[in-house]
Design brief:
It is globular, with a radius of gyration of 32 Å. The longest helix has 26 residues. Among the domains are: 94 residues, OB fold (Dihydrolipoamide Acetyltransferase, E2P), CATH 2.40.50.140; 209 residues, Rossmann fold; 157 residues, P-loop containing nucleotide triphosphate hydrolases (Rossmann fold). It is an alpha/beta fold. The protein starts with a helix and ends in a 9-residue tail after the last helix.
């Protein structure tokens, strides 16, 4: 039994309390047979008129039941001998099920029924139907949940003073909410219960959001109590870089840099998420942060999820910083052994104050002289343990001195805009900065929806763009054949396009290539030696080729909204007009049609992210940020925004003034897990 309960998430008494019904059935009243409407689920009471096993068209048990006003058939295609024995002529019973109209009149298929022995009172509450698993009947679950409710402490953990302070003095009490959901009265608003808008549901959702906020904000406070090396302003490197850049920072970049700079100057570790749409200029802000570390005589590390993105960062950093006499080391799987050993030595002895790399950065043999700042790009693509491992490499030299217990500052960057409600919930332990302005001169990408039947028009457009001296991408979703999805592979497409455009240099890059092979192809494309690049989604982040003005995304209907937006962001980086063609195959499903319509109508990453969140939930945005705790089970950050804002306010108040109740609430909801998220 314990294993079965564990399969539905029940491991302790309070899990029974929070194992809430999916729906309800009304067994509190008897419906006369003539009043039972087809399509409705009702309870009848009557006498078995006859019962027999028939074989038309297959073996089935058929019983006719009558009350004083009509007759209804109970039909079973799968049955036990005990059921046959119960359904004897003359027996009285109650049956609950969905009524349907058949040739012989009204009938129920596989109803729930039991024999009556004398007078039996009707239930006082609606019957809950719970999520369950094989071998765990509803009756058993109802009994176990009822027993757990009787012995579990449902003490109120939300002080009245807090409810009044956040404007929710009328919020349903916790015990009352639990009772109302497990045993709602017959006159309960079933629609509100089903939609999750019932006052009892709102209390459960609020408490779940409060537990999340308490956990995250407590973690935030604990981090503020830790020590870090202050990277104070005052050096000349930041000013020199700003004066040498071929562009001026936007107002948004200046604002964000001010926020980050203030964090770096403090004696506790920064944990800041820098959000900015594709092409908004996050990399230069990261470079300024790294320079602050160099000015302070310590090191900075920049970690990217792919070789392509890491190489992009190295090129930009070296272009900007070489004139300042600053060495930028690079750690990647594409290096020769000699190059790698030289890079490792420069990182260990401190001659390379800035190092850029992929996952290689947090491996054991990578030793820093004095790591004080870690920048993690596309942070949702890394696991918690990977980020913790990089953070754990903090300031070896400083730890050896009198600065024991210091941590490096952490700047996480994301080009996938995170909807505001997610920032308030799953990222509540971080400070968040947003670059909400694009650099001047950037022309918005024109998006076109084109059916696969018009493929030849697309080919003509590629020939025209490349003939005018520009470059183009052709994006395919998969490499290997998939009969289920009927997607063309990048390998086939490359061969076909190379044949169609013999006058062009047609390259291919995909995830199965080695780091060296990918680097060679991308370098050739950046140098203009290739005019058309066939690629999988390995180019989703980090590719910055200003001369590329055309992108074709094949089978665009198969991609998610956020992914389409990221891919589209690879073009439109120069002064020329850029076009993204979403090549789709009919017939389109409703969800795919909505996705393509959304990406066609908007270039605003935050609006696209909001729609993606509504369509697919928060998992896509959190990536590996989750650590042990599930996504929210009951609350929805987008639909329950008012509760989320109130929970955030309540959490701050409880941590400051009601720490005992805050701990009780966390113990109740987290059950031994100290926090929702760790890094």
């Amino acid at each position: 039994m314990r294993a079965k309960l564990a399969r539905v998430g029940i491991r302790r008494d309070f899990d029974f309390v929070l194992h809430l019904p999916l729906r309800y059935e009304d067994e509190t009243r008897i419906v006369p047979i003539p009043e039972a409407r087809p399509g409705s689920a009702v309870q009848i009471e009557g006498e078995v008129l006859d019962c027999k096993i028939v074989f038309r068209p297959r073996r089935q048990l058929v019983a006719r039941v009558g009350d004083e006003s009509g007759v209804l058939t109970l039909r079973f295609f799968s049955f036990y001998p005990s059921q046959h024995r119960t359904l004897v002529a003359g027996a009285r019973l109650r049956a609950f099920g969905e009524v349907r109209f058949a040739q012989q009149g009204l009938e129920m298929i596989h109803p729930r029924f039991h024999a009556l022995h004398g007078e039996e009172p009707l239930p006082a509450a609606l019957t809950p139907i719970y999520p369950t698993t094989s071998g765990l009947p509803q009756a058993t679950l109802r009994r176990l949940i009822g027993e757990a409710l009787g012995r579990t402490d449902l003490e109120e953990t939300l002080p009245l003073a807090v409810r009044e302070a956040i404007g929710l003095s009328n919020l349903t009490g916790f015990a009352a909410a639990v009772t109302a959901l497990h045993t709602p009265p017959p006159d309960a608003d079933e629609r509100a219960l089903a939609l999750g808008t019932h006052p009892a549901w709102r209390r459960i959702k609020f408490d779940e959001l409060l537990a999340q906020q308490l956990s995250m904000r407590r973690h935030y406070r604990e981090r503020k109590a830790k020590r870090a090396r202050p990277l104070a302003p005052g050096g000349t490197l930041v000013r020199e870089l700003l004066s040498q850049l071929p562009f001026r920072l936007t107002r948004a970049q200046i604002r964000v840099w001010s926020e980050i700079g203030a964090d770096l100057a403090r004696a506790h570790p920064m944990h800041r998420l820098l959000q900015g749409d594709v092409g908004s200029g996050k990399t230069v802000v990261a470079a300024l942060a790294c320079l602050r570390a160099v000015e302070s005589g310590v090191q900075a590390a920049v970690m990217a999820p792919t070789e392509i993105l890491a190489e992009q960062h190295v090129r930009k950093f070296r272009d900007w910083l070489s004139r300042l006499g600053i060495s930028v080391a690079w750690l990647t799987g594409a290096q020769s052994r000699k190059e790698r050993e030289a890079a490792l030595e420069s990182v260990a002895n401190g001659t390379a104050p800035i190092v850029v790399g992929t996952h290689a950065l947090f491996q054991e043999h990578v030793v820093f002289d004095a790591l004080a700042l870690a920048v993690v790009d596309e942070q949702h693509r890394f696991g918690v343990m990977q980020r913790l491992a990089l953070r754990g490499k903090g300031e070896r030299r400083l730890k050896g001195s009198n600065a024991g217990g210091v941590e490096p500052h952490l700047l996480m960057m994301s080009a996938t805009p995170i909807p505001r409600t997610l920032s308030m919930s799953y990222y509540a332990d971080l400070d968040v900065s947003v670059i909400d302005e694009m650099p001047p001169g950037r022309r918005p990408v024109v998006t076109k929806l084109v059916a696969d039947t018009r493929r030849q028009e697309v080919m003509r457009r590629i020939r025209a763009a490349c003939g005018a001296g520009h470059q183009a991408y052709w994006v395919c979703p998969l490499i290997e054949e998939s009969d289920a999805l009927q997607l063309k592979t990048a390998l086939e497409t490359h061969a076909a396009l190379a044949g169609d455009f013999p006058e062009l240099g047609v390259g291919l890059v995909h995830g199965r290539m080695s780091a060296v092979e990918k680097a060679e192809v991308m370098s050739a494309f950046a140098a203009g030696e290739l005019q058309l690049l066939v690629a999988t989604t390995v180019i989703e982040v980090g590719v910055d080729i200003a001369n590329a003005t055309l992108m074709v995304i094949e089978h665009a209907e198969r991609f998610g909204l956020a992914q389409l937006h990221q891919l589209r962001g690879r073009i439109g980086r120069g002064a020329a007009e850029s076009v993204c063609i979403l090549l789709y195959q009919n017939p389109l499903g409703e969800a795919a049609r909505r996705r393509l319509q959304a990406i066609y109508e908007s270039t605003d990453g935050f609006e696209i992210a909001r729609q993606d969140l509504l369509a697919r939930g928060p998992g896509e945005y959190l990536g590996s940020r989750q650590s042990g705790a599930p996504l929210l089970r009951f609350a929805d950050t987008e639909r329950d925004q008012d509760l989320l804002a109130a929970a955030r306010q309540a959490a701050e108040l409880m941590l400051a003034e009601f720490p005992r109740e805050a701990q009780q609430h966390l113990d109740r909801w987290l059950g031994g897990r100290s926090e929702f998220l760790k890094a």
